[in-house]
Amino acid sequence: MFEKTFIPYGLYWSTPFCRWQGALANAHSLELAAQVASEVLAAKKVDPKAFDSVMLGMTVIQRSSFYGAPWLAAMIGATGATGPTFAQACATSARVIASASAEIELGQSAAVLAVTCDRTSNGPHLYYPDPTAPGGTGASENAVLDAFNRDPWAKNAMIETAENVAKEAGFSKEQQDEVALMRYEQYQAALADDRAFQRRYMAPVTLRRGKKEIGKVEADEGIHPTTKEGLERLAPVKEGGTVSFGAQTHPADGNAGLVLTTEGRARELSARPEVKIRVVAAAEARVEKGFMPKAVVPAARSVLAKAGIALGDVKAIKTHNPFAVNDLFFCREMGVALRAMNNFGSPLVYGHPQGPTGTRLTLELIEELVAAGGGYGLFSGCAAGDTAMALVIKVG
Question: Which of 82, 108, 361, 370 is deepest in the core (most CB within 10 A)?
């Protein structure tokens, strides 16, 4: 549980998420994250030298990403700051927020810039030399697709974890289609009034070739129009299964960031000093191998216990839902109505860039709570290895 960690209102951002091989497919994810962070901080008149720590979260390596957070800090002008780089699959954002909060609680840092980014498009193709193998031929790996398609411990693909939970729980394709359509409809609320909700946290991306500006991305790219009839026409991906392409997310590219600091500093940096945003607690969980979507439930229960609150005290809930099965299981086990969570969108609709996904969800959670007049918010999201992480945020 945390007591001293606050987020200045408005001092956070997420880029639009762009579908695989879309507008951000050729942008170096770390360099792009630094570009966006610099533009946002400049617009909000925040000196990068105010940060005594920078934390980076990313899961897909890019050229020179070995230099991680120190390189990011230097690119944005925080040349005196350093920090770690985290990779915890789709729990990366929650891990960065939890670790930054721990630094502040312990007094090791007073202001942490947390940036998360990934580019699943054009992922690296890796070759592992093995001179002892027949013919001296080594092994190769697609860092993105092979990760999706085979867990070395559970020996299954991501989609098979959803099928395992659907079979055990008795969730039909029709139930999953219903959730997919519902989440698409909820996302439409974020687009109302010229994307008024998204504009509270979304930062546009300027595309450049060298120093020349070649375009701008201002909204999510690749959202697939969803209808009941369209979902019904989609067959399950696996023979004998229930999960179709319409009831699962798609790989995407993007980045997101936020500032975590002390209460007094948050008030100074906040665009609305009367709004107090506190990180209350973080927790993680792991379930039996091959059942990843289940993990969101024990993670949520653990973080609520650490926060000292009940589910009934929570005003808004966001989940990382790469499969509709995730939300079906969460709602059944937690006693939550399907429509009572993931307002304004979720990764099931706008995509899954891994590293920054949880950060964007946390920002949407904050903005939903602010609009509702404050209260507790819960985020829980699954991750590779049949795990999950969860956060509780309080807006006062």
Answer: 361
